[in-house]
Specification:
By secondary structure, the protein is of the alpha+beta class. Helices cover 26% and strands 33% of the residues. The chain is elongated.
C-alpha cells in the first residue's frame, strides 16, 4: 500500500467536498480511496452527517494543539498511525467543518406583523367616537367630546376639557407610520416621543391614583413628577411604573424581549409574576416573553435613545440587532441568506435618512456585506 500523507489527503478531501476538484481529480481521489481501506473508512465517516456529529463529540476530548504538534508532516514517521489519522480528522472537522459542511441557512426576521396597509402614511389619532384625524392636516384647535387637540410644530398637545359629573373616561389611540416619529404632550404635561410603527393608547384625562397609558412599539417618555399619582406604561404582561423620570421602552409585539432603559430618575418594572425590578440611571431591564425572566444590565442609555435625535446608534452591536432597528423604523422584514452574517458587529451611528437605501449604503461601505431590497424585505448577503 502506497504511504499517504494524511494532511495532504485532508486538503484534497475538503476540496472534493466543496466541489472544487475537476472530474479527473474526483475520479483519481475516489480510486485512491477505494484502494486504501483506511481512506475508505475515513471517507465514509466524513460523508455521513450523523457520524460527523459523533466524531465531533469524540474528538472534543482530544488535546488538539498537542495532536497537531506531534502529528505534523515532518514528524509523521515517529507516531502511530492512529494518532496521524486522529490529527487529520481534527484538521477536517475543526478547521474545515463550518466552511465545508455547515451549509448556509437563510433566516427571516419579521418586523411588520402590524398591517401597515391599514394605516395612513401620516400619523393619525383614532378618537373614541370613531373619528380618525390625520395629524399632518390638523393645524388648529380640534375639540373632541372630552378633550382638546392642538397640533403645532410637530407636537400633538392633549388637554382635558372640564369634567362633567359621571362622564366616563374615554380612550384614544395615536398611530405612527413607518419611517418617522411623532411627539405628543399628555393631559398631565408628560411628553412622549413615539417611534415609527408604534401605537399609544391614552385616556382623555387621568383619574385615580395612576396615570395609565398602553404602548405597542417604542417610545421615549419624559414624565411630569406627581407623588400622588404614579405614571404607568402598560405593556404585554409587564408594567413600567414611575413618579417622574426619563426613560425609553421598546415593546414591539414580535420582539423576543421587552426592553426598558432608564436615563434619569427611577422606574420599577412589574413582571407577569407581579415581581418588582428597580432600575437606576444607565440600567436596562430585559423581560423575555418566552420564559418571563428579567435581566438587568448596565448600558450607555444614549445608545438606546439616539433614535429620538434621528440616529441609529451601535456599540459592538450584532447585525441582527442593527437590522432590527432598521426593520422597525422603515417597516421592512430582513432575510439573511446566510444566518451566520447576523453575528457581524458594528460600532458607530447612522442618520435615519428618509430613504432606507441611504442607510444600507453606509453598512455596505463599512464591511463585506451587500443589501438587496424589494417592497417588503431586505436581503443580506456577502459581497
Amino acid at each position: 500500500m502506497v504511504p499517504v500523507d494524511p494532511f495532504e489527503f485532508a486538503t484534497r478531501w475538503m476540496d472534493y467536498a466543496s466541489g472544487r476538484l475537476s472530474e479527473e481529480e474526483v475520479q483519481a481521489l475516489l480510486h485512491e480511496i477505494q484502494s486504501n481501506p483506511l481512506l475508505a473508512g475515513l471517507h465514509q465517516e466524513l460523508s455521513d452527517p450523523e457520524q460527523r456529529r459523533a466524531n465531533l463529540e469524540e474528538l472534543s476530548g482530544y488535546n488538539i494543539q498537542k495532536a497537531l504538534k506531534h502529528s505534523s508532516p515532518s514528524k509523521v514517521h515517529r507516531f502511530p498511525t492512529a494518532w496521524i489519522w486522529a490529527a487529520a480528522s481534527i484538521v477536517l472537522l475543526f478547521a474545515g467543518m463550518f466552511a465545508y459542511f455547515a451549509k448556509p441557512t437563510s433566516e427571516l426576521q419579521v418586523f411588520t406583523q402590524l398591517d401597515s396597509s391599514e394605516w395612513s402614511t401620516t400619523p393619525r389619532i383614532l378618537l373614541a367616537d370613531g373619528r380618525s384625524i390625520l395629524l399632518d392636516t390638523l393645524k388648529q384647535l380640534e375639540t373632541a367630546s372630552d378633550m382638546n387637540l392642538q397640533n403645532a410644530e410637530g407636537v400633538l398637545t392633549i388637554a382635558a376639557t372640564a369634567k362633567v359629573v359621571d362622564d366616563p373616561v374615554e380612550w384614544h389611540r395615536l398611530q405612527i407610520p413607518f419611517g418617522r416619529q411623532y411627539k405628543m404632550q399628555l393631559p398631565d404635561g408628560s411628553r412622549v416621543t413615539l417611534h415609527a410603527g408604534t401605537t399609544l393608547e391614552f385616556p382623555s384625562r387621568f383619574e385615580g391614583v395612576q396615570r395609565v397609558v398602553r404602548l405597542n412599539g417604542e417610545a421615549f417618555f419624559e414624565v411630569e413628577p406627581n407623588k400622588n399619582q404614579e405614571f404607568v406604561v402598560k405593556l404585554s404582561n409587564v408594567d413600567v411604573t414611575v413618579f417622574g423620570t426619563t426613560f425609553n421602552v421598546k415593546a414591539f409585539e414580535q420582539d423576543e424581549f421587552i426592553q426598558t432603559t432608564l436615563v434619569s430618575g427611577s422606574v420599577a418594572l412589574r413582571d407577569s409574576a407581579q415581581r418588582l425590578h428597580y432600575l437606576k440611571p444607565n440600567e436596562q431591564a430585559l423581560w423575555e416573553r418566552r420564559t418571563g425572566s428579567v435581566q438587568i444590565r448596565s448600558v450607555d442609555a444614549s445608545v438606546y435613545t439616539a433614535w429620538v435625535d434621528g440616529y441609529f446608534s451601535f456599540n459592538q452591536t450584532s447585525l441582527e440587532q442593527v437590522m432590527q432597528q432598521v426593520g422597525h423604523w422603515y417597516g421592512k422584514d430582513v432575510l439573511y441568506l446566510n444566518a451566520r452574517h447576523k453575528k457581524t458587529r458594528y460600532t458607530g451611528s447612522v442618520r435615519m435618512y428618509d430613504s432606507i437605501q441611504d442607510v444600507l449604503r453606509k453598512f455596505e461601505l463599512a464591511g463585506n456585506l451587500a443589501f438587496d431590497m424589494d417592497d417588503q424585505c431586505i436581503r443580506v448577503q456577502r459581497k
